[in-house]
Amino acid sequence: MTESQRETERKYEAPSAGDTTWLPDLAGVGGIESVVDEGTEELDAVYYDTEDLRLAGASVTLRRRTGGTDAGWHLKLPLPGDSREEIRAPLSDTLPDTLSDLALSRTRGAHLRPVIRIRSTRGVRQLVGSQGTALAELSIDAVRAEPLLATGTRAASWTEMEVELAPDSDPALLDVVDKTLRKSGVERADSPSKLARALEETALGAPRLQGERAGETVARGSAGEAVLDHVADQISTLVKLDPAVRRDLPDSVHKMRVACRRLRSVLRSYRAVLDRKSTDAVRKELKWLGGELGAERDQEVLLERLSSRLEVLPQELAFGPVSARLQIWDAGKSSEARRRTLDALNSDRYLALLDSLAALTERPPLRAKAARKPKKVMTKAIGKEYDRLSGRVTFALDLPPGEERDTALHEARKAAKRTRYATEPARGALGKPAKRLGKRVKAVQKVLGDHQDSVVARDALREIALAAHAAGETGFVWGLLYGQEQAAADRRERELPAVWADASRSGLRKAL
Questions:
Q1: Secondary structure of 77-134 in HEC code, one letter for each residue
Q2: Whole-model pTM?
Q3: Alpha carbons 55 and 68: distance in angstroms, whole number
Q4: What are the CA-CA distances from residue 164 to residues 24, 126, 173, 177 (Å)?
Q5: What is the pLDDT of residues 367-425, one digit of tens each?
Q6: How far apart are CA 48 and CA 70, in angstroms?
Q7: Residue 132 backbone dihedrals phi, psi, to 5 degrees
Q8: Residue 55 · residue 107 · CB < 8 Å
Q9: Which of 161, 239, 158, 154 is CA-nearest to residue 205?
Q10: Where does residue 314 rank: exposed (0-12), middle (13-18), buried (19+ CB within 10 A)?
């Protein structure tokens, strides 16, 4: 069993832990009414990582800590700014599988072992507001670090201070306290965490940062740099979303699937920059992962669409146990889709993909054109994707309404996504014209996407209607919703020519 909370804090250098005359009085600062001394506690933490420090390289910490009020296993995942998410599990002798799984996208299956032990004598002060509520905790730690890997050559000790917000406190309090501390000569710590400082001071070595490139350098301002930066961002997004997907957090499956699609698309569009002999295999595996995630995401979208249709249906037309029938249909589908997602993330195939993605950034398979200036290379790549999109839209619009046209419109939708994604790494080099084209193509994609959702919804409604009929229930509601979806698809088909005309204006491409 795990629990999580958001942790927002800032670290400072502290001259000493015993004599604290250097610490300014914070009473009266930013709504702080009083500073309450809570005494001293002894903390003993063993940090776990891989032999090559993959967690530290991703700014993730995993520790087993005794002492204090929160003894147990703690996995800390980075969030924007001064925040991290801390996921806790009860104290035990062995690493909980739940935390090991949540770290898997960073470890890529490598063995986790103790790497360093950090003991702290902590003096705790509560920064209390007018209502007697703790606004933040200020702690001063006398720290001793001992390496547990053979590569560490020495122990280390230092003193530091941290100010951590209480869960419901205004983050602006940190800025006010920070200003007061700096005026008193208290400076921010150079290291973001105790672990980072301990690795440095015990000579265990700096971990390789996630996405850091080794070997072949990439020319500054080149097409290769622009593409690789975008690829690295998408890989980082995919890796960071893994724990959220495992915990079934809202919208996490969708975001991870989109990261897969963006990566696949960019690797395809920029074959002139990255050698397809290396990237085609990665694209194939990203397609597999996106497909496994897609089952769960598609079911989420479909259930939301059908539920919203039922919610606005007049009560006098809601014949039969329609809500119960929808729940029965969704239960089996959702359970199977969820199982597919988790099976994929726990598979050897997924671990191999993560290794391939890491290699893609660490040892990028650059082609000669990667060294060129980005404008010409990227304009050509976008142009190729646009031409494919144009051909598919024209082909679809020339077909009569029906199943063949539905399929052609779906293919046009996929081409619209690839064109839009091709503009994203080019925005730094091509500026507003790339952003503008991407925005217009996104509008085309939206119309085509809603059309495809209607096609899928009609298939589902037919399936539900058959199940209802077999159970002796009326199929009236499902037929009614089917008609609504058909009408929605017809509207999107009528909208498409105007939206496409807006996206296909020659000036948009000339501006590139």
A1: EECCCCEEEEEEECCCCCCCHHHHHHCHHHHCCCCCEEEEEEEEEEEEEEEECCCCCE
A2: 0.91
A3: 24
A4: 17, 10, 10, 11
A5: 999 999 999 999 999 999 999 999 999 999 999 999 999 999 999 999 999 999 999 99
A6: 18
A7: 80, 10
A8: yes
A9: 154
A10: exposed
